[in-house]
Amino acid sequence: MRRFLPSSLGIVLLLSCCTSMGTCQQAIVLVGSGSTVPAPLVNKWTEAYNQHNRKVQMRYVAIGADEGIAAISHGSGDFALGEVPLTDKQRSKGGLIELPAVVIGIVPIYNVPGVRTELRFSGEVLADIFLGKIKRWNSPALVKLNPGVSLPDVPIRVINRPAGKGSNYIFTEFLSKVSPTFRSQVGVSASPKWPTGKPAERSSEMVEAVSSESGTIGYVEAQYAIESKIPYGLVLNASGHFVKASPETLTEACRAVEAPAFDKFSASLTDAPGARSFPISSYDWFYLRTSMDDVRRAAALREFLDWVFSDGQQIAANAGYSELPPPLRVKISNLVQNVK
Fold this sequence. Notes:
There is one protein chain. The chain is α/β, with parallel strands linked by helices and 340 residues long. It has 2 domains: 6-103 and 284-336, 3-Layer(aba) Sandwich (D-Maltodextrin-Binding Protein, domain 2); 105-258, D-Maltodextrin-Binding Protein, domain 2. Helices cover 38% and strands 21% of the residues. It has 14 helices and 12 strands. It has helices spanning 6-9, 39-52, 65-73, 88-94, 123-130, 140-145, 166-178, 180-185, 203-212, 222-228, 247-258, 295-308, 311-318, 326-336; strands at 14-18, 24-34, 56-62, 79-82, 96-111, 120-121, 157-160, 198-199, 216-221, 234-236, 242-243, 281-289.
């Protein structure tokens, strides 16, 4: 079994820092690892929290969702982040729990010659594109969804993600819900066997690949698309509406699944009901050990998580992410106390 050594994650457990009086104190450095999807938000959280609490500093290493789960399971680091729900075996064997951190959306991004408008996609059409069944941008299925748009007669070049990526899990879960063919041929997986396309290792590389190559289509977390100004499409939801990913439509998907009790911590927000729900929505999860050897570190981690579910959510909202609904945050905050 592969061991994730502290050095491989750049983990520094204690950082010496001195006060202006010359008296040295020890600041705990909490280290997390995991998906590249939430990395821009976690970087904002890290910067803000490092200013908020000088006695506890944060580091985050973006290595992939599966790698993050493996690391926290093996005792490397203090938390992990990703989009893949834990299995019962991972929970019991690793003593792990997952808690929703923020709601995200995976959007189809594209580079179609002569087209800068917002294209419309259905789940079935996206499934057929990523199965390699729809091969050209002016295919009848795409033309029907986009009346009035002059779609060129050029090949569709698919960009996907390699094994172990949380965005794969969300995207394949949605496509499997809406397309029986996709469900039978590919299924729900963080490591799907894509029948067509070439991989992009990181979310930023996905944006770069689609931006630089004409005729391409890929998928990425909404904030990567927004910040890069690359076109991304509207997606047909379960209520028959074409919806664009936004903080409001992601929150609607969360509310549609979790309300009224807000205590399910649902593992799936994809294809949620509701006229304004964006259909490729999901939680990004904190993966946490319920038992830590160091009481002081456990207390520091609880303090950081309490901050994430209060001030940190406002930072997420200001950065364009969808903050968790307040009733859900209350329930999650109660569970944070189980980290000891």
